[in-house]
Amino acid sequence: MKSLKPRVSLHQADCFRLLQERFHFSDDTAARCDKLLKGEYGETRVDELLSCFFDGFDGIYISDLRLNIDFQQVQVDSLIVLDDCVLVFEVKNLSFDLHAADGLFYMMSGEPFTALNDQLARLKKLLRAYVAQFDPYIDVIVYPFFINDSQCIHGMLLRGDVLATSNFALVLAKYRRRFNWRSTVPLVNHLMKRSVPNNFDKKMDIDYSKVTKGTYCSVCYNKVERISQRKFQCLKCNTDISTAAVISNGVKEISRIWPDKPITTKLVTDWLGESIDKRTIQRVLSKNYLLTKGNYEGWHYK
Protein backbone atom coordinates (compact mmCIF):
# COMPACT_ATOMS: atom_id res chain seq x y z
CA MET A 1 0.00 0.00 0.00
CA LYS A 2 1.26 3.45 -0.93
CA SER A 3 1.35 6.14 1.74
CA LEU A 4 0.61 9.78 0.98
CA LYS A 5 0.84 12.83 3.25
CA PRO A 6 2.52 11.50 6.41
CA ARG A 7 1.16 12.60 9.76
CA VAL A 8 2.80 15.67 11.31
CA SER A 9 2.65 16.33 15.05
CA LEU A 10 1.06 19.59 16.19
CA HIS A 11 3.42 22.30 17.43
CA GLN A 12 1.50 22.55 20.72
CA ALA A 13 1.80 18.81 21.29
CA ASP A 14 5.52 18.80 20.53
CA CYS A 15 6.20 21.75 22.85
CA PHE A 16 4.35 20.06 25.70
CA ARG A 17 6.04 16.71 25.04
CA LEU A 18 9.53 18.23 24.97
CA LEU A 19 9.09 20.70 27.82
CA GLN A 20 6.77 19.04 30.33
CA GLU A 21 9.71 18.33 32.68
CA ARG A 22 11.38 21.72 32.27
CA PHE A 23 8.65 24.35 31.91
CA HIS A 24 5.58 25.26 33.97
CA PHE A 25 2.35 24.96 31.99
CA SER A 26 -0.95 26.21 33.39
CA ASP A 27 -3.44 23.53 34.40
CA ASP A 28 -5.70 24.36 31.45
CA THR A 29 -2.83 24.24 28.95
CA ALA A 30 -1.49 21.00 30.42
CA ALA A 31 -4.94 19.36 30.24
CA ARG A 32 -5.46 20.49 26.64
CA CYS A 33 -2.01 19.37 25.52
CA ASP A 34 -2.30 16.06 27.34
CA LYS A 35 -5.49 15.44 25.37
CA LEU A 36 -3.64 16.30 22.14
CA LEU A 37 -0.86 13.84 22.97
CA LYS A 38 -3.39 11.13 23.75
CA GLY A 39 -5.12 11.72 20.43
CA GLU A 40 -1.85 11.74 18.48
CA TYR A 41 -0.77 8.51 20.14
CA GLY A 42 -4.00 6.82 19.07
CA GLU A 43 -3.74 8.09 15.50
CA THR A 44 -0.10 7.05 15.20
CA ARG A 45 -0.89 3.58 16.52
CA VAL A 46 -3.68 3.19 13.96
CA ASP A 47 -1.24 4.28 11.23
CA GLU A 48 1.12 1.52 12.32
CA LEU A 49 -1.59 -1.15 12.58
CA LEU A 50 -3.15 -0.39 9.19
CA SER A 51 0.17 0.05 7.37
CA CYS A 52 1.33 -3.33 8.66
CA PHE A 53 -2.01 -5.03 7.98
CA PHE A 54 -2.22 -3.80 4.37
CA ASP A 55 1.49 -4.28 3.64
CA GLY A 56 1.88 -6.12 0.34
CA PHE A 57 -1.58 -5.13 -0.88
CA ASP A 58 -2.71 -2.21 -3.03
CA GLY A 59 -4.34 1.09 -2.14
CA ILE A 60 -3.36 4.62 -1.14
CA TYR A 61 -3.21 5.54 2.56
CA ILE A 62 -3.71 9.17 3.57
CA SER A 63 -3.49 10.45 7.13
CA ASP A 64 -4.41 13.70 8.86
CA LEU A 65 -6.44 15.18 6.02
CA ARG A 66 -8.48 18.34 6.52
CA LEU A 67 -10.98 19.00 3.73
CA ASN A 68 -13.06 22.03 2.83
CA ILE A 69 -16.27 20.68 1.28
CA ASP A 70 -19.13 23.04 0.42
CA PHE A 71 -17.64 25.69 2.72
CA GLN A 72 -17.54 23.23 5.61
CA GLN A 73 -14.31 21.84 7.04
CA VAL A 74 -14.04 18.21 8.05
CA GLN A 75 -11.09 16.45 9.69
CA VAL A 76 -10.20 12.94 8.51
CA ASP A 77 -7.85 11.01 10.80
CA SER A 78 -6.99 8.33 8.21
CA LEU A 79 -8.41 6.95 4.99
CA ILE A 80 -7.60 4.28 2.42
CA VAL A 81 -8.53 4.70 -1.24
CA LEU A 82 -9.20 1.37 -2.96
CA ASP A 83 -10.35 0.54 -6.48
CA ASP A 84 -14.07 0.61 -5.64
CA CYS A 85 -14.41 2.26 -2.23
CA VAL A 86 -12.91 4.64 0.31
CA LEU A 87 -12.36 3.48 3.90
CA VAL A 88 -12.47 6.34 6.42
CA PHE A 89 -11.22 5.89 9.99
CA GLU A 90 -12.26 8.12 12.88
CA VAL A 91 -9.75 7.29 15.62
CA LYS A 92 -10.76 7.49 19.28
CA ASN A 93 -8.41 6.99 22.22
CA LEU A 94 -10.92 7.14 25.08
CA SER A 95 -10.61 5.90 28.65
CA PHE A 96 -14.30 5.24 29.37
CA ASP A 97 -16.61 2.44 28.23
CA LEU A 98 -19.40 2.90 25.70
CA HIS A 99 -22.42 1.01 24.42
CA ALA A 100 -22.99 0.63 20.66
CA ALA A 101 -26.44 -0.01 19.18
CA ASP A 102 -27.98 0.60 15.74
CA GLY A 103 -25.06 2.68 14.51
CA LEU A 104 -25.06 5.01 17.52
CA PHE A 105 -22.99 5.23 20.70
CA TYR A 106 -24.21 5.72 24.24
CA MET A 107 -22.56 6.44 27.56
CA MET A 108 -22.89 3.65 30.11
CA SER A 109 -25.54 5.78 31.84
CA GLY A 110 -27.70 5.38 28.72
CA GLU A 111 -27.21 8.97 27.59
CA PRO A 112 -26.43 9.32 23.85
CA PHE A 113 -22.79 10.18 23.08
CA THR A 114 -24.00 13.09 21.00
CA ALA A 115 -20.60 14.57 20.13
CA LEU A 116 -19.35 11.33 18.56
CA ASN A 117 -22.67 10.47 16.91
CA ASP A 118 -22.89 13.91 15.28
CA GLN A 119 -19.23 13.80 14.24
CA LEU A 120 -19.63 10.44 12.47
CA ALA A 121 -22.88 11.52 10.79
CA ARG A 122 -21.28 14.70 9.48
CA LEU A 123 -18.21 12.82 8.26
CA LYS A 124 -20.36 10.33 6.35
CA LYS A 125 -22.62 12.98 4.83
CA LEU A 126 -19.88 15.30 3.55
CA LEU A 127 -17.46 12.66 2.27
CA ARG A 128 -20.12 10.54 0.57
CA ALA A 129 -21.56 13.57 -1.20
CA TYR A 130 -18.14 14.79 -2.33
CA VAL A 131 -16.90 11.38 -3.55
CA ALA A 132 -20.22 10.93 -5.39
CA GLN A 133 -19.38 14.05 -7.42
CA PHE A 134 -16.40 12.11 -8.76
CA ASP A 135 -18.09 8.71 -9.11
CA PRO A 136 -21.50 7.88 -7.60
CA TYR A 137 -20.65 4.17 -7.62
CA ILE A 138 -17.70 4.46 -5.24
CA ASP A 139 -18.76 3.56 -1.72
CA VAL A 140 -17.52 5.49 1.32
CA ILE A 141 -17.40 3.45 4.53
CA VAL A 142 -16.71 5.27 7.80
CA TYR A 143 -15.28 3.18 10.65
CA PRO A 144 -14.92 4.49 14.20
CA PHE A 145 -11.68 2.91 15.46
CA PHE A 146 -11.34 2.64 19.26
CA ILE A 147 -7.65 2.18 19.96
CA ASN A 148 -7.52 1.95 23.78
CA ASP A 149 -7.18 -1.75 24.64
CA SER A 150 -8.60 -1.20 28.13
CA GLN A 151 -11.80 0.38 26.82
CA CYS A 152 -14.86 -1.82 26.33
CA ILE A 153 -17.44 -1.12 23.62
CA HIS A 154 -20.50 -3.08 24.74
CA GLY A 155 -22.64 -4.38 21.89
CA MET A 156 -19.77 -4.23 19.39
CA LEU A 157 -20.04 -7.01 16.80
CA LEU A 158 -16.94 -9.05 15.99
CA ARG A 159 -17.40 -8.44 12.25
CA GLY A 160 -19.45 -5.26 12.47
CA ASP A 161 -18.84 -1.62 11.57
CA VAL A 162 -17.08 -0.65 14.82
CA LEU A 163 -13.34 -1.29 15.01
CA ALA A 164 -11.05 -2.03 17.94
CA THR A 165 -7.62 -3.62 18.14
CA SER A 166 -9.32 -6.96 18.80
CA ASN A 167 -11.41 -7.13 15.63
CA PHE A 168 -10.09 -4.73 12.98
CA ALA A 169 -8.22 -7.51 11.14
CA LEU A 170 -11.40 -9.60 10.83
CA VAL A 171 -13.46 -6.65 9.59
CA LEU A 172 -10.91 -5.28 7.13
CA ALA A 173 -9.61 -8.58 5.71
CA LYS A 174 -12.02 -8.36 2.75
CA TYR A 175 -10.36 -5.13 1.62
CA ARG A 176 -6.88 -6.62 1.23
CA ARG A 177 -6.52 -7.03 -2.50
CA ARG A 178 -4.21 -6.56 -5.45
CA PHE A 179 -5.07 -4.15 -8.26
CA ASN A 180 -3.47 -1.36 -10.28
CA TRP A 181 -3.21 1.30 -7.57
CA ARG A 182 -2.62 3.97 -10.21
CA SER A 183 -6.31 3.71 -11.07
CA THR A 184 -7.07 5.40 -7.73
CA VAL A 185 -4.90 8.47 -8.40
CA PRO A 186 -7.71 10.55 -10.02
CA LEU A 187 -9.91 10.03 -6.94
CA VAL A 188 -6.99 10.85 -4.64
CA ASN A 189 -6.43 14.08 -6.60
CA HIS A 190 -10.15 14.82 -6.30
CA LEU A 191 -9.83 14.54 -2.51
CA MET A 192 -6.54 16.38 -2.20
CA LYS A 193 -7.71 19.43 -4.15
CA ARG A 194 -10.06 20.14 -1.23
CA SER A 195 -7.25 19.77 1.31
CA VAL A 196 -6.62 22.82 3.50
CA PRO A 197 -4.03 23.54 6.21
CA ASN A 198 -4.88 22.47 9.72
CA ASN A 199 -5.76 25.80 11.35
CA PHE A 200 -6.03 23.98 14.67
CA ASP A 201 -2.22 23.83 14.76
CA LYS A 202 -1.61 27.13 16.49
CA LYS A 203 1.97 27.91 17.47
CA MET A 204 2.67 27.85 21.19
CA ASP A 205 4.58 30.88 22.44
CA ILE A 206 7.21 29.68 24.92
CA ASP A 207 9.44 32.15 26.78
CA TYR A 208 12.97 30.76 26.32
CA SER A 209 14.22 32.48 29.47
CA LYS A 210 11.71 30.57 31.62
CA VAL A 211 12.66 27.11 30.39
CA THR A 212 14.99 25.03 32.57
CA LYS A 213 18.19 24.38 30.65
CA GLY A 214 20.02 21.06 30.70
CA THR A 215 20.26 17.66 29.03
CA TYR A 216 17.05 15.66 28.69
CA CYS A 217 16.11 12.26 27.30
CA SER A 218 14.74 12.12 23.74
CA VAL A 219 12.69 9.01 24.65
CA CYS A 220 10.93 9.89 27.93
CA TYR A 221 11.96 13.59 28.14
CA ASN A 222 13.35 13.29 31.67
CA LYS A 223 16.74 14.44 32.91
CA VAL A 224 19.86 12.61 31.72
CA GLU A 225 23.20 12.47 33.53
CA ARG A 226 26.69 12.22 32.15
CA ILE A 227 28.29 8.84 32.87
CA SER A 228 31.44 9.29 30.76
CA GLN A 229 33.10 11.78 28.44
CA ARG A 230 31.14 10.44 25.47
CA LYS A 231 27.95 9.10 27.01
CA PHE A 232 24.87 10.18 28.97
CA GLN A 233 22.21 8.01 30.60
CA CYS A 234 18.56 8.67 31.42
CA LEU A 235 17.86 8.10 35.11
CA LYS A 236 14.27 7.09 34.41
CA CYS A 237 14.28 4.82 31.33
CA ASN A 238 18.00 3.88 31.41
CA THR A 239 18.49 4.91 27.78
CA ASP A 240 22.15 5.48 26.88
CA ILE A 241 22.85 8.36 24.53
CA SER A 242 26.09 9.63 23.06
CA THR A 243 27.30 13.17 23.59
CA ALA A 244 26.96 13.85 19.85
CA ALA A 245 23.35 12.64 19.93
CA VAL A 246 22.59 14.86 22.94
CA ILE A 247 23.84 17.85 20.95
CA SER A 248 21.88 16.88 17.83
CA ASN A 249 18.72 16.36 19.89
CA GLY A 250 19.23 19.78 21.44
CA VAL A 251 19.32 21.36 17.99
CA LYS A 252 16.12 19.53 17.00
CA GLU A 253 14.38 20.67 20.19
CA ILE A 254 15.28 24.32 19.67
CA SER A 255 14.33 24.21 15.99
CA ARG A 256 10.96 22.64 16.74
CA ILE A 257 9.97 24.89 19.66
CA TRP A 258 11.40 28.12 18.23
CA PRO A 259 11.69 27.60 14.45
CA ASP A 260 12.81 31.20 13.90
CA LYS A 261 15.74 31.04 16.33
CA PRO A 262 19.12 30.87 14.54
CA ILE A 263 21.18 27.90 15.74
CA THR A 264 24.53 29.01 17.14
CA THR A 265 27.17 27.36 19.28
CA LYS A 266 26.39 29.81 22.08
CA LEU A 267 22.66 29.02 21.98
CA VAL A 268 23.13 25.23 21.99
CA THR A 269 25.66 25.48 24.81
CA ASP A 270 23.19 27.47 26.89
CA TRP A 271 20.27 25.16 25.98
CA LEU A 272 22.18 22.13 27.23
CA GLY A 273 22.89 23.87 30.53
CA GLU A 274 26.59 24.14 29.75
CA SER A 275 26.88 20.43 30.54
CA ILE A 276 28.96 19.97 27.37
CA ASP A 277 31.92 22.19 26.61
CA LYS A 278 31.61 24.75 23.84
CA ARG A 279 34.42 23.26 21.75
CA THR A 280 32.74 19.83 21.59
CA ILE A 281 29.43 21.40 20.60
CA GLN A 282 31.10 23.46 17.89
CA ARG A 283 32.83 20.36 16.51
CA VAL A 284 29.55 18.39 16.32
CA LEU A 285 27.68 21.30 14.74
CA SER A 286 30.41 21.87 12.15
CA LYS A 287 30.36 18.19 11.21
CA ASN A 288 26.58 17.82 10.88
CA TYR A 289 25.24 21.25 9.91
CA LEU A 290 26.01 23.93 7.35
CA LEU A 291 27.42 27.19 8.66
CA THR A 292 25.73 30.08 6.88
CA LYS A 293 25.31 33.83 7.25
CA GLY A 294 21.83 35.31 7.24
CA ASN A 295 20.81 38.88 6.49
CA TYR A 296 19.91 39.59 10.10
CA GLU A 297 20.94 36.59 12.20
CA GLY A 298 24.68 36.61 11.54
CA TRP A 299 26.57 33.31 11.32
CA HIS A 300 24.46 30.30 12.29
CA TYR A 301 23.96 26.63 11.48
CA LYS A 302 21.30 25.07 9.28
Molecular structure report:
InterPro entries: NERD. Residues 38-153 form the NERD domain. With 302 residues, the protein is α/β, with parallel strands linked by helices. Helices cover 34% and strands 24% of the residues. The chain contains 8 helices and 14 strands. A hairpin with a 2-residue loop joins β10 (224-228) and β11.
Please describe the topology of this protein.
Elements: E1 2-4, H1 11-19, H2 27-53, E2 60-69, E3 72-81, E4 85-92, E5 98-101, E6 104-107, H3 114-134, E7 139-146, E8 153-154, E9 163-164, H4 168-172, H5 185-192, E10 224-228, E11 231-234, E12 240-242, H6 243-257, H7 265-271, H8 278-288, E13 291-294, E14 298-301
Parallel strand pairs: 1-2, 4-7, 5-8, 7-9
Antiparallel strand pairs: 2-3, 3-4, 5-6, 10-11, 11-12, 13-14
Helix pairs in contact: 1-2, 7-8
